[in-house]
Amino acid sequence: MKPAVFQYRKAETTREALEALGTNPGAKVLAGGQSLVPLMNFRLSRPDVLVDINGIEELTLVEKLDQTLAIGALVRHSTLSQHPLIEREVPVLAEAARHIGHWAIRNRGTIGGSAVHADPAAELPAALVALRASVVVGAPRGERTMPADEFFLGYYTTALAQDELVMRFEIPLPARRMGFSEVVRRPGDFALVGAYVEDSDAEAAVTWFGLGAMPERQVVEAWPKGQDERQALLERLAREVQSDDEYKYAMAVNVAERAYLAAQKEG
Amino acid sequence: MAAVEDRISIQLQVNGRQHQVEVAPRWTLADVLRHQIGLTGTHIGCEQGVCGACTVLLDGEPVRSCLMFAVQAQGHHVTTVEGVTPETGLSPLQESFRDHHALQCGYCTPGMLLTAQALLDRNPTADEGAVREALTGNLCRCTGYQFIVDAVLAARDQGRDE
Amino acid sequence: MAQAMRPQMMGARVSRVEDPRLLSGQARFLDDIQVPGMLEVAFVRSPHAAARIRGIHTEKAVQYPGVHAVLTHQECSVLLWERDTYKVGQPVLANGEVCYVGQPVVAIVAENRYVAEDAAELVVVEYEPVTPVLDMRESILEQPRRVHPEAENVFFHKKYATPGFDEAFAKAPHHLTASFRTNRQTAVSMEPRGTAAMVDAASGRVTVYASTQSPHRMREDISHLMEIPEHLVRVIVPEVGGGFGMKANCYPEDIVVVAAALKYKKPVKWVSDRMESLETDVHARDDIHDVEVAFDGDGKIIAIRDHLMADGGAYPAYPFSGAVGETSLASRVLTGPYDIPHLATEIHCTYSNKTPLGAYRGVWGPIASFIQEGVVDRVARHLGLDSAEVRRRNMIRPGQFPYRNAAGMVYDEGSYLQSMEEALTLIGYEGFRARQAKLREEGRYLGIGISVFVEPTAMASSEAGSVGYESCTIRIEPSGKVTAALGLGPSGQGHETTMAQIIADQLGVRFEDIVILHGDTDSAPFGGGTGGSRSGPIGGGAALVAGRQMRERLVKYAASLLEAGEEDIELGNGQAWVAGVPDRSIAIRTIAETAYTNVRKIPEGLPIGLELTARYLPKRPVTFSNGTHIAEVEVDIHTGVVEVTRYAVVNDCGTLINPTIVEGQIHGGVAQGIGSAILEALHYDEDGQLVTTSLLDYLLPESTDVPRIDVRHLETPSEGEGGIKGMGEGSLIAAPAAIVNAISDALTPFDGMVDTLPVTPPMVLQMVSGGRTR
Ligand SMILES: Cc1cc2nc3c(=O)[nH]c(=O)nc-3n(C[C@H](O)[C@H](O)[C@H](O)COP(=O)(O)OP(=O)(O)OC[C@H]3O[C@@H](n4cnc5c(N)ncnc54)[C@H](O)[C@@H]3O)c2cc1C
Ligand code: FES
Ligand code: FES
After folding, report:
1. Which chain A residue lies closest to C117 (C-alpha atoms)?
2. What would the 3-class secondary structure string for C446-497 be?
3. How far is ligand 3, taken at its centre, from the CA of residue C187, in Å?
């Protein structure tokens, strides 16, 4: 289980990274390597050129702007889970990050990598959709910004072109308050199913992960206060998502219910 | 026919010592530590990030050396099990592992030690829950974990007393 | 001073001598072996469950830079098993057909593993897929076809019944039927398999480094299969990172590596990666049991009928088939610790297009316990009786030993009932029911599961070797230090420590002055190796006998040199002295000096030097350890996720050599039992593709999956040397049954009873919803 041959380019700036991507059609970005390198070890991914972005300072920033919290693509899961700004402004993101893999994985894995890898069972892509974040993408042609729900297209598929680089994510502030819950067989595993449930004055919504091919935010008028009624609604919403596994529907209702209860505590 | 790939010369800082090694870009840090630098205490159990046998510290943080290429470790401090072992004898954590029978075949042990050491360095008051949580990323097939957890907790208490 | 009590090392909680090197990263495992010019192997493996090979094209691979050689069946045509035993033997490199995914087809020998894998991708094999045989019940009926045209799918068939079975069964007032299924699992040692071979320039012999449990067995196998005289083969077993039965086989890769080293006169190494390990390490536990049980109104079980089926995979593993091991032995301990007079069994072992079945810790035991304990709980539930009480009513009584069970196995003395009673106290069985009832009202589902087990250990013919004995050579060096060697193949059990403990007591030398050698066929006397829980009772027995014989020699020396009677000599702390006269003493070092250099002073009738080899064959063909595990679980009925919350073990493995090491073995076995019960399964899809090829799919227990385990010891000595019984497997034998019974107990309100291992969350949900609609 050893990777195939590749050339290594270390990029110090986003320009260098974009240049390297632009001139090598077989190039791929190397961020935390926690998804890409296993695939390369299995030889399921075989880039000709690896563009290592780990040295690019500007991608590691977490900044509060006017109406948004900007999180650089290279922010690692372990930073997400304990960064004071994130803890304060978007606590659910910090909580979700704590549920990713194990300590050593979180020390390397990045939010950008998780988004681009787009594992349907991953915590962060769904968080970005649930929080109505935007994805800022750099390209040789210039930057473009798209809403997270347009970024994710399906199983391991995104709207990113081969020569593009995810720069950062922008989460509108004040961030939507929501509850998070997931079912795992062992701590640190990818979730069987997980959910973010929003129950704010503004809106009521649920975003599942591990259920369909990609995270989708489903909005309802309001969550019924009665548990049976609420669960019936959740069941209906879950059934709108295409899943390969009957077991997952039962699970989905359950985690959403738990996320709902957590959201009540969030206040 | 020419060689398959070019080798590049890199500097690695491992356990406080500089090493100049010729590597292919695709060689993982685990392989280079083991086969180029001769530090075979770092073990390989899955090459997929799951088992934790290859755990080393990168600037003091536990990482998987099977999921990093050696070229990426330039400019960082790598610590392996050999680096946490005193010149003579064992470290307090290693002693505690021995006292508590926290190892059987010993294959997972270097990774366990490094994760546990990093935990205690950060959180000298870690309780059993925190210890177990930190070690979820290090699989052991032999011990059932109880004696490992006991060893870490005892090392913690010893550290407190000092 | 010399009179001081001899330190009793046997039974002491001694820290292991193995640990410092393992803790400091200085131990040498197989992949740590590097010699100049060493080449590495990668295999091209079958991507099909079943296919004919129409052509193999290796030209591109041969030309790839860094490649030394490419081997196919033409270059290496060794067959595992001659055709006599099972009519079928696996060619070490596929010959015209492939029969399971992962089967080795071509071997690439290259300058390193990276290059070897590059070249492996360049090999083109033309396959013509055929319908795979994947279902055990169909395979018995030769459907959809024969796996091997020359052999029936059923390669092992056996029937047995106690006299009068049918009548006893029919006359019983109550009957139940159940079908039990265990799904494929495998050992997953953290260190994968591996082999390295090189020709020793000085002697011309081949040296094979092998990550195996049985050095001598491996040497025999290599010698026999490759027709190299034994004395020209040396096997060295380095540090082994776990074996659990899986490393007791000789595998195709072992032979190919040796063949390549001989053919190309280069050191050659192959180390399995994790995908290869999940695909090609022997699998285990692929069994179905169709069970009928007859019992009376008090819950006394009268008769059990069992149709045992096991899917042996594509070929019999070498040198023993796991399917035969699992079924034939399960059929003989199926009544467990219970006095059940009647038994009828029928066994079918079949071929399929899956990985060969071999051994995994406990082999037959976890399956037999799952069934026997599942049967008892079903009887209890059927009659509305407490399951501990039904066990009590059926348990073999202390006065019944030696007890001959319905299959003819003779159990030596054990503490069956006592172990259960103590375990019930340990877990607080009485208080549990109230807690369970209260929490159920809050919607929380707790359950408790009992598993009383018997563990046949030290079988005269264990899976680890055909020999029933073990040997130990002791040499007291001229300095008085001791070197002892055994043919064992430890993989974490701490034999360097336990064997030294035994010998220290016998010789009266300090523990620190003994070094134990193992794993090198040049230094270790012949023996069966480690497996089947035999190293303690048989290996330890050999150490004890050798120690005693050496002690006798030391006593003769001391008596002669101190001019005293032999009966008056005492040994301890590196000294020999006359009892009651501590001044009349002599250092063992001085005796050794005499034995080697001052040879004129050697007492009459004694040989020069202090070296001897003893062999020990236990009188009984098997000794039974026993004990009781009780698990408490909480089942989340909304998600189906099970958490093992509390765990108690009362274990009886006879006289303890080192209680700490025994506890470590128990903890590890329970953890594996948790994996077996709720996490681990190898899945094949409908095309015969193994879909669980990584540790993200094959789930091992993590630190948070295993609760604290409360262990108590009982010691009912065996009749063998030292009173030692084996104990390597018991914890994994007992644990899955305890856990699934606890799950069944938790799901009592839904009528559910677990009949499949492992229990997955969807299964739990199905049991919950199935019960609800009923
Ligand atoms: C044992 C284990 C357990 C795990 N458990 C979980 C879990 O429970 N939940 C979970 O969500 N994840 C889990 N992960 C995955 C982990 O979160 C990864 O870190 C993450 O999926 C990818 O992030 P990365 O930075 O490592 O990306 P990489 O592996 O470096 O890259 C992933 C992909 O994204 C591309 N990419 C990365 N960054 C950019 C960028 N800025 N612009 C453009 N393309 C980019 C790469 O080219 C590649 O295609 C686990 C991983 C392991 C090994
Ligand atoms: S070898 Fe790196 S995590 Fe298993
Ligand atoms: S001690 Fe063997 S894997 Fe942990």
Report:
1. A2
2. EEEEEEEEEEEECCCCCCCCCCCCEEEEEEECCCCCEEEEECCCCCCCCHHH
3. 13
Is C478 part of a structural domain of the chain?
yes
C482 beta partners: C476, C514
C696 and C735 part of one domain: yes
When CB atoms are compared, the residue of C273, C638, C705 closest to A254 is: C638
* Same domain? C629 vs C752: yes
- Average pLDDT per block of 10 residues along chain A, 267 residues long: 97 97 96 98 97 97 95 98 96 96 97 98 98 96 95 97 97 92 91 95 93 95 94 96 89 96 83
Q: What CATH architecture applies to the domain B8-84?
A: Roll (3.10)
d(CA A5, CA A26): 12
Q: For residues C512 and C504, give the distance between their C-alpha atoms in angstroms, rounded to a whole number.
A: 9
Task: Name which of A34, A102, A105 to mutate to probe chain B: the one with the most chain B Cβ atoms within 10 A of its Cβ.
Answer: A102
C554 to each of B31, C477, C592, how far by Cα in Å? Answer: 51, 13, 9
> Can you give the residue range of the structural domain that contains C750?
363-457+621-771
- Contact check, Cβ <8 Å, C667/B147: yes
- Print burial letters for B49-59: b (CB count within 10 Å at least 16), e (below 16): bbbbbbbbbbe
| Among B residues 53-72, those touching chain A with beta carbons less than 8 Å apart | 55, 58, 61-64, 66-69, 71-72
pTM exceeding the 0.95 threshold for the entire prediction: yes
Domain end position, chosen among C111, C130, C149: C130
Query: How many DSSP H helices and E strands does chain B contain?
Result: 5, 5
Number of domains in chain C: 3
For the domain made up of B92-161, the CATH class stated in words is: mainly alpha
Residue C513 within any structural domain of the chain: yes
Which ligand is the nearest neighbour of the Cα of B67? 2
Q: What are phi and psi of C600, to 5 degrees?
A: -65, -25
The residue-averaged pLDDT of C36-53 equals 98
Which atom of ligand 2 has the smallest separation from the CA of B64?
2
Q: Whose CA is nearest to atom 3 of ligand 3?
A: B140
Considering only CA atoms, which residue is closest to atom 4 of ligand 3? B140
